[in-house]
Amino acid sequence: MSNFAKIVKTTPITDDYDISNTVLGLGINGKVLECKEKKSGLKRALKVLHDSVKARREVELHWRASGCKHIVEVIDVYENAYGGKTCLLVVMECMDGGELFQRIQDNRDGAFTERQAAEIMHSICVAVRHLHDTNIAHRDIKPENLLYSSMEPNAVLKLTDFGFAKETLSPADTLQTPCYTPYYVAPEVLGPEKYDKSCDIWSLGVVMYILLCGFPPFYSNHGLAISPGMKKRIRLGQYDFPDPEWSSVSSEAKNLIRGMLSVDPAKRMTIQQVMSSPWVRQYTQVPQTPLYTNTLLREAGDAWPDVQDEMTRSLATMRVDYDQVQVQIKALEQSNNSLLNKRRNKVGA
């Protein structure tokens, strides 16, 4: 990449950082370790990537996007050799506050409210607007990639993991590679047709839906990460707002979800339109209506990690050069998700 040489340092990372064996998380393309900056003593996160065209693209796009408050900041990038292989070592700010849904699930200070959901959506939308304004499609917006900066009440929510990100040089540019996480995938991404950065808006709509009720709008009835029936429902935009979870949610919120979950990308809202909606723009005025979200997430217990594991295993089938070949999601063995059991009987297989 043209700007990659300007970003990367070739000195040993150990000159500047002490690296631990503590694994903070797993991204699409590599694991994330804890490290400490020698000069400041600050804890950082270190992502380890095997050098490749794909990895360099991830690093450069994440670096370019780092100027936004709601995107995890890249601090340093090193190119070092380990065991005869060249690795890219990406030092980022350490996000100690945990994943979005885990934080909601762990919250014991009363019910999660619609106003809180609107504030979260505003933060995510700021990140997506920054990306789209700089012609970057993230292509993997999901709760596991939304992390809090700390455990403090005023912690900042930030978007991370640019392993699927792609540059779109103009609004007319399209993407054609099958990069997605099943629960959040836009209908046009499932097929051979081309798609653009509006696929991020669909994913935003799915995240917003779960924020407001505690379960996803589309899922497999058989415990699979993705199934033929689920694909069909996504393609047709078949979802509902069932009671009692949705009975008190505002019509403004439901209409916003409808606008983001339009199966026709040409009719789907843009990020500018989403942010112009009163529900997002004036989030401090959204009603403080109690939601079922954290109750359902707590009732689900370990179900959300199960859901995430299924997604990760599906994504593992795509860890090839997905810009060169078409990749098919492999069928997974059946599993049982208590989080989704309540909804499985309401939708056909």
Automatic annotation (TrEMBL):
Pfam families: Pkinase. Its EC number is 2.7.11.1. ATP binds at K47. Residues 315-342 form a coiled coil. GO terms for molecular function: ATP binding; protein serine/threonine kinase activity. Keywords: ATP-binding, Coiled coil, Kinase, Nucleotide-binding, Phosphoprotein, Serine/threonine-protein kinase, Transferase. SUPFAM superfamilies: Protein kinase-like (PK-like). One of its GO terms (biological process) is regulation of cell size. SMART domains: S_TKc (SM00220). It catalyses: L-seryl-[protein] + ATP = O-phospho-L-seryl-[protein] + ADP + H(+); L-threonyl-[protein] + ATP = O-phospho-L-threonyl-[protein] + ADP + H(+). It comes from the Eukaryota. Belongs to the protein kinase superfamily. CAMK Ser/Thr protein kinase family. This is non-specific serine/threonine protein kinase. It comes from Bombyx mandarina. The lineage of its organism: Eukaryota, Metazoa, Ecdysozoa, Arthropoda, Hexapoda.
